């Protein structure tokens, strides 16, 4: 097994000034996974950001393991909800775009119908006004 993707627990603990028992407690609670190779504990390099976050909670903020476990659970839930919101927003945007497309199509078709109606209606009104004007002129014209 290659160890280049693993970090020895004792080196991590020495560089962060923490005890190996803290890492063991994290493994027991299931917050991290540790691999043992030839009686040496290793942490996967991919777990480093999570482990460093846990160490900051513990050292700098003085939060106990149960509190850290709760915080990490809540952060995980927040990330899941944000991902779900992003999915729902994208889905909503898709349906809004579809609706806008159909509305634009409907409006443009309606506009054509309205223009035709308006033009024919205006032509009829103009013809009526012209007919009235002619008949008014005939009635009001002086007889010679």
What does it look like?
With 144 residues, the chain is mostly helical. It has two domains: 6-63; 65-144. The chain has four helices and three strands, in the order E-H-H-E-E-H-H. Strand 2 and strand 3 form a beta hairpin. The chain starts with 5 loop residues before the first strand and ends with a helix.
Keywords:
144 residues; mainly alpha; 2 domains; 3-stranded antiparallel beta sheet
Task: Briefly say what this structure is.
This protein has helices spanning 9-16, 20-29, 48-59, 65-140; strands at 6-8, 34-37, 40-44. It is mainly alpha-helical. The protein has two domains: 6-63; 65-144.
Topology:
Blueprint (H helix, E strand, L loop, with lengths): L5 E3 H8 L3 H10 L4 E4 L2 E5 L3 H12 L5 H76 L4
Antiparallel strand pairs: 1-3, 2-3
Largest beta-sheet characterization: 3 strands, antiparallel
Which regions are unreliable across 5 or more consecutive residues at pLDDT < 50?
none
Q: Given the C-alpha coordinates, what overall shape results?
A: rod-shaped
Number of helical segments?
4
> What is the CA-atom radius of gyration, in angstroms?
39 Å
Distance between the termini: 122 Å
* Percentage beta strand: 5-15%
């Amino acid at each position: 097994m290659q160890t280049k993707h693993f970090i020895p627990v004792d080196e991590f603990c020495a560089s962060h000034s923490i005890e190996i028992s803290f890492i063991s407690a994290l493994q027991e609670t299931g917050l991290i996974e540790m691999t043992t190779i030839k009686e040496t504990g290793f942490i996967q390099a991919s777990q480093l950001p999570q482990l460093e976050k846990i160490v900051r909670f513990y050292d700098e903020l003085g939060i106990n393991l149960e509190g850290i476990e709760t915080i990490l659970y809540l952060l995980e839930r927040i990330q899941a909800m944000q991902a779900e919101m992003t999915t729902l927003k994208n889905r909503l945007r898709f349906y809004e775009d579809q609706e806008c497309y159909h509305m634009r199509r409907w409006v443009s078709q309606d506009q054509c119908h309205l223009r035709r109606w308006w033009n024919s209606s205006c032509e009829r009104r103009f013809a009526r006004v012209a007919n009235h004007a002619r008949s008014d002129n005939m009635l009001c014209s002086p007889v010679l």
